[in-house]
């Protein structure tokens, strides 16, 4: 069989930071392009256990493949099975891509996977274009589906794989599986021992230049050293709560494979890399034993590091840490259940400055503790005082299946069921919710723009960035970023 794994185009993504006119400021796509690692993991696993099939990955986002061009790509490959990765905010594009696939390969089996069916399983099986959906991690379930399709068997008993006819037999309103976020109400596909999975086969994406706006080069590779996040931030809807670390020897095997392919900059893409400082030091120890000094960065928390761990990481090439700071008061951090304090934030950024490690603050405005525009401005005052090398500022998004969403519904700030209804019939004009108890979307978007410009257009900051440039990619990214900040309305 011919198996196509598809990351659809992103031409109709629901805006996260839109005002009442549907206009926003900077969105996630403005900060770079990253490989669809989940889809790549699924593809790499099924091609290992079922090597006799023909496989193709199309990352329409990474390759800038439009909906108009996608039809020809699907027609030329003529797949028997198409697996779609998805996020809820990209659902319009997912459906348009499925319509194209159905037209170009009318007999193909279309399977929907990714984050969306895990968040909205019942709504996903109601989308008639798809023959099946996978709830949870797709490696084992998709392989079992392919075997059934090849051999003519039934697939109603595959854990995590559902159709509109089967899902209602499995719904359990009282279900609680500690491996998952508590919103899940049907059994999900799951990989307990992620060391058994082969690493992503990057031969499928080596022709694509992925990059981060805060990276050094335009040939970035992303690496997972774990899956899952046990933290309970009130705004986060990450579905996998059990932390599963990979064997770090296997991780560094993967890094060495990437080095041999010509990659030289590594972004550790875990939901939480530095779950402990010990984990950071163990990773450094493997790099040291193999005499590897690579350029790398990670996403992490301020309360999962020590000075000793950072110093050791710097010695083996750590360039940058993206810290989830979120907000600038202890009251705000407690409201978001971050499990960290402002003192810990300041200590982490001080250590990074002292050791010469670049820092990025992931930050938000519009948290419930900000009750007026001056509160937002004071929050940005703190960010400027913290003085990270970079800041990525968002408006707090209130997503379904989070504690803040439930609270916002109970307060009448959000209409209950609007995401479920839209997921059954996605149409343009839908927007992500924000905490509008005190400030409107119009005000938040205006303050969002103001916050970015206040942070990045400080003369002292501009001079510092100019003197610290290390590559043409950095120069180009800085120019592009400045143009966006100046011209986006």
Give structural notes:
The chain is an alpha/beta fold. The chain has two domains: 2-21 and 35-194, 3-Layer(aba) Sandwich (Rossmann fold); 209-397 and 434-487, Aldolase class I (TIM Barrel). Helices cover 39% and strands 14% of the residues. It has helices at 37-49, 60-63, 67-77, 91-104, 115-119, 121-125, 139-151, 248-260, 277-289, 307-315, 330-335, 342-355, 373-386, 403-410, 418-424, 441-456, 459-467, 472-487, and strands at 2-7, 32-33, 54-59, 81-84, 109-112, 132-134, 161-162, 211-212, 220-223, 226-227, 244-245, 265-268, 295-300, 318-326, 358-365, 390-395. Strand 13, helix 10 (307-315) and strand 14 (318-326) form a beta-alpha-beta unit.
Biggest sheet features: 6 strands, mixed
Helix content: 25-40%
Low-confidence regions: none
Strand order of the largest sheet: 3-1-4-5-6-7
The strand count comes to 16
Query: By helix and strand content, what is the structural category?
Result: alpha/beta
Describe the structure using short key phrases.
alpha/beta; Rossmann fold; 18 helices; TIM Barrel; 489 residues
List the helices and strands and how they pair.
Blueprint: E1 2-7, E2 32-33, H1 37-49, E3 54-59, H2 60-63, H3 67-77, E4 81-84, H4 91-104, E5 109-112, H5 115-119, H6 121-125, E6 132-134, H7 139-151, E7 161-162, E8 211-212, E9 220-223, E10 226-227, E11 244-245, H8 248-260, E12 265-268, H9 277-289, E13 295-300, H10 307-315, E14 318-326, H11 330-335, H12 342-355, E15 358-365, H13 373-386, E16 390-395, H14 403-410, H15 418-424, H16 441-456, H17 459-467, H18 472-487
Parallel strand pairs: 1-3, 1-4, 4-5, 5-6, 9-12, 12-13, 13-14, 14-15, 15-16
Antiparallel strand pairs: 2-8, 6-7, 10-11
